[in-house]
Design goal:
Elements: E1 10-11, H1 12-25, H2 33-52, E2 55-56, E3 65-67, E4 73-75, E5 82-83, E6 95-96, H3 110-115, E7 117-118, H4 120-135, H5 147-151
Antiparallel strand pairs: 1-3, 2-5, 3-4, 6-7
Helix pairs in contact: 2-4
Length: about 170
């Protein structure tokens, strides 16, 4: 059992969206770049803690970061987190998902979708997407992928995700 304190400001995603909406009426309420960088710094500290303990989060996003009363971010929602294998391919540390698995597509690097291998580097990718969310008021980061195409994927092993379609066969 994991016991966490109550985070009265809620998720970072809802907080930055709410502040962006309020800033439309009163521009003085917009989040400063310093505040946004502060959120990123706090998230980075939390992720560094996970790395020290050989955990891969696999679902870092603003929706999974909670804010306390002082607006300190805390990485949360460890439902997809896993302990890295200490004996990976060629001695590298990673967690390999097996069978059907849940993947946060918009926050997962393409190579992890293909290989189902997750490690510190895949969490770094997610951190980058999370930073984009922070600086764009948590607007949808899906780019040109629409919800129907994302939801229609039966699995990442479908022919749509073949290595032939990726640059340099990666």
């Amino acid at each position: 059992m994991l016991i966490m304190p109550y985070y009265e400001k809620g998720s970072l995603q809802s907080y930055i969206k709410r502040r962006a909406e309020e800033a439309v009426v009163d521009p003085s309420l917009s989040l400063s770049d310093a505040a946004k960088i502060g959120f990123m710094r706090g998230i980075a500290r939390g992720m560094a803690h996970l790395v020290q303990h050989h955990f891969v989060h696999r679902d870092l996003a603003t929706r999974n970061v909670l804010l306390d009363a002082k607006l300190e971010p805390k990485v949360a929602d460890f439902g997809l987190s896993r302990l890295e294998s200490l004996a990976g391919d060629n001695g590298s540390d990673y967690y390999r998902s097996s069978g059907k698995t849940t993947i946060a597509l918009r926050w997962t690097p393409p190579e992890a979708m293909l290989s189902l291998k997750f490690n510190e580097a895949t969490d770094v990718w997610s951190f980058g997407v999370t930073a984009i969310e922070i600086f764009t008021a948590a607007r949808d980061s899906k780019g040109d992928i629409n919800r129907r195409s994302v939801n229609s994927l039966d699995s990442v092993n479908s022919p749509r995700w073949s290595t032939a379609a990726t640059p340099h066969g990666a």
